[in-house]
Specification:
This protein has 11 helices and 19 strands. The protein is of the alpha+beta class. The protein binds coenzyme A (COA). The site of coenzyme A (COA) has 18 residues, from helix 1, strand 4 and helix 3.
Amino acid sequence: MEIRPTTDTDLDVFVDTVHAAFGRFPETPIEGGGLWWSALEMDRCLLALTADGRPVGTAAAHSFELTLPGETPVPAAGVTAVGVLPSHRRQGVLSTMMRHQLAELRARGEFLSVLLASEAPIYGRFGYGPATYTARLTVPRHQAALAVPRARGVADAPATGSDNGSVAVLRRAECGETLEEVYDRYRRAQPGALSRPHRWWALRAGQPPISPAPRYVAVHRDADGVPDGYASYSIDSGTLTVDETIATDNAVFTALARFVLGHDLVTTGVFKHVPPEHPLRWQFADFRAGEVSGDTDWLWVRLLDVPRALTARGWFMDGELVLDVADPFLGEHGRYLLTVREGKADCVPTDREPDLSLDVSDLGSVYLGGTAPSTLVRAGHMRAHRPGAATLADALFRTDRPPHCLHWF
Ligand SMILES: CC(C)(COP(=O)(O)OP(=O)(O)OC[C@H]1O[C@@H](n2cnc3c(N)ncnc32)[C@H](O)[C@@H]1OP(=O)(O)O)[C@@H](O)C(=O)NCCC(=O)NCCS
């Protein structure tokens, strides 16, 4: 089996192979076909070929930035377009490609990669763990009244309703640059969020609101007229569905939700991609107004350099933990002393007795603060070696803001 980068002359072979792996036919240009593929980086697309040169597998990576807790954007490989022809499955083609790709990411100096998994059982063995979660919130309009916030008088109470900003309804085609600018501001502050490289916006590659799919966009501006949030949406048979609500703070989110749920001729508002524990449910006068569904994993994280990854993120409590980390896929193992002081971590090899033993995929799951280590201890995946170790790990890994990602790639 040969694994090699795609060349200028065989990108079409790469794309055909991915389509065949997913059992899909190429989209027509009318549907925006080809745009997503044009966002691929040629030198990051891999083809797996049989000994006689037939393409049987594909894997690619985008050069994204991932925002870590503490508002720290770092380079992250966004693994995508993974497929093996149905005729060649369960013969180790993906395993060979994953090994090749992980080595290549390290050679580039990247210390973590991320992906969206088509099926949950595929990627744990390669060291990826689910790290962010997302759900949709469905709200019947007749139940959608917002409660009067109990913290009135507190200067930054987000739902006071005294929003001095404004909302304008624009068409997607009219406001691309505004959306790109607002999204970029939002993602730099949101742990778990990915950059959307300018190329993606320029090419209109991806899902709404990037894609050419027709959408209305409610753009929120602050009192000075500066755009600080948007909701892209469509209406069908009385249901207004928001693809994504991007807000640089809670008050802006509330203003956009108020706009969506106040829309005439709409019986139901659906917010896709709502983070877990989003305050919106608490803001309804009727706590049961928002029905949560489609609760699922979104971003999976794979760490390739444990000390670098742990020292790159921000921390919100001082403490010390010894982590014994196994990486069975790469045949590696390390024991590290993690010391956090004033928001910064130091992480060095140690011989000390471990507090926790874990697989690198579980470290990926807890890394952004979206999964509590104690949950994985209770699930039997992580081992706590002394009483209180899991509680301490929970407190240490917790972040100021739950991680969330809504970029599809
Ligand atoms: C997922 C896919 C790429 C796997 O490729 P593959 O070459 O068959 O994978 P491998 O042979 O290297 O499998 C390695 C191991 O993972 C397991 N595995 C692979 N795909 C799996 C799946 N979908 N569900 C459960 N286990 C899976 C294999 O059984 C094997 O286990 P083993 O080592 O215990 O025998 C291939 O099935 C595919 O193209 N599926 C459709 C497209 C898709 O879903 N792509 C992923 C996009 S995120």
